[in-house]
Amino acid sequence: MHARDCEECEEKDDTMLDVIRRHIIVRGDLSEEQRQRLLAIAKRCPVHRTLEAGPKILDEMDTAS
What we know:
By secondary structure, the protein is mostly helical.
């Protein structure tokens, strides 16, 4: 997705963004407060936090002996 097409983006430019969409389905009669609490918990997931932080990738290369 182009950053200029992203409504939630802080900066609008011509660069590309990786977008991951998560669709959460809940069953049962939950109050809005319960639904918001589950969403808050999902956002604290270690994978979610790592992806949201934008990990840096460091490459290393060794020579074979």
